[in-house]
Amino acid sequence: MLITIVTVCFNSERTIARTIESVLGQTYGEVEYIVIDGCSNDRTLDIVRSYEARIREKGYSFKLVSEPDKGMYDAMNKGIAMASGDCVGLLNSDDWYEPEALEMVVDSFGKHSDADIVMGAIRIYNGDHTFIKKARDRRYKTSRDFNHPAMFVKSECYRQVGPYGTGNVHDDYGWYLRAMKQGRHTVITDEILTNYPTGGAGSYKSLKNTIERIGTKYKVYKENGYSKLYFLECVVQELGKFLLLKN
Questions:
Q1: 236: CB partners within 8 A, 6+ apart
Q2: Cα separation of 176 and 183, whole Å?
Q3: Is residue 21 in some structural domain?
Q4: Most exposed of 106, 113, 146, 157 (fewest Cβ within 10 Å)?
Q5: What secondary structure does DSSP assign to 73-102, as a single string?
Q6: Is residue 209 in a domain?
Q7: Would you put residue 157 in left (φ > 0), alpha (ψ -120 to 50) or beta?
Q8: Distance between CA atoms of 192 and 97, rounded to whole angstroms?
Q9: What is the C-alpha separation between 66 and 242, in angstroms, rounded?
Q10: Dmax of the chain from CA atoms?
């Protein structure tokens, strides 16, 4: 199985090297690596280009695009459209994989031939504290069970479900709800695949931002036909993040 990893970045000079090193450190070798840059004006592109020789020496195919985009999900859509792999993982420029992450993903797909999606656990870094967030696949859908940084999707599934929306910070979860509505099969592994530091677009902390996120999260439930009661789920989760997460 060829796995395509897509990293989207913009002005990520502080973290992009760690992200790339984690891809290079994989125990699984059938990899295509695509970096989609949004015209960074810091050293991000220089750092990415400095790794190109090592990436190719590892035996990976490599593509780099730097051009304006309409935001993170637009950049992800570009990378997915360019992917040649059997499945695609999206690794943001401040996240990093565990060394055996891709090997465990391939193993899960191998054991479940009908799987469209494999999703694992993530280790979250919240200031000086870390905790594990496991994915789950329950009848009652909630983003508390959803780990986008540890989600790997068959390319055929991406083609059939369609691209991410580009106007909502929760468009990753909106895509997943759309996939579930179409009857796509998710396999869950409790293995930690990805390390995720808080502080990105999905966890910026302010009361105004929290109120906005309640509305935008509820929008993705509503668009996918879920009950109005899910508004309460959005309130509880976003207020919990506001109280517990550090910037």
A1: none
A2: 11
A3: yes
A4: 113
A5: HHHHHHHHHH--SSEEEE--TT-EE-TTHH
A6: no
A7: alpha
A8: 9
A9: 34
A10: 53
Q: Say which residues have a Cβ less than 8 Å from residue 78's Cβ, sequence separation at least 6.
A: 36, 65, 69
The one-letter amino acid code at 171 reads D
Gap between the Cα atoms of 18 and 95, Å rounded: 8
Q: Which H or E element spans position 245? A: none
Which domain covers residue 79, as residue numbers? 3-200
Decide: pTM greater than 0.85.
yes
Question: Cα 128 vs. chain centroid, distance in angstroms?
Answer: 23
pLDDT tens for each residue of the chain, 247 residues long: 999 999 999 999 999 999 999 999 999 999 999 999 999 999 999 999 999 999 999 999 999 999 999 999 999 999 999 999 999 999 999 999 999 999 999 999 999 999 999 999 999 998 889 999 999 998 888 888 999 999 999 999 999 999 999 988 899 999 999 999 999 999 999 999 999 998 755 445 577 888 888 888 888 888 888 888 888 888 887 887 777 665 5
Structure token pair of residue 173: 């979860």
* 211 located within any domain: no
For residue 226, is it within any domain? no
Name the helix (H) or strand (E) containing 22: helix 16-24
Dihedrals φ, ψ of 223, to 5°? -65, -25
Query: What is the number of domains present in the chain?
Result: 1
d(CA 29, CA 24): 9
Tokens found for residue 114:
């009908």
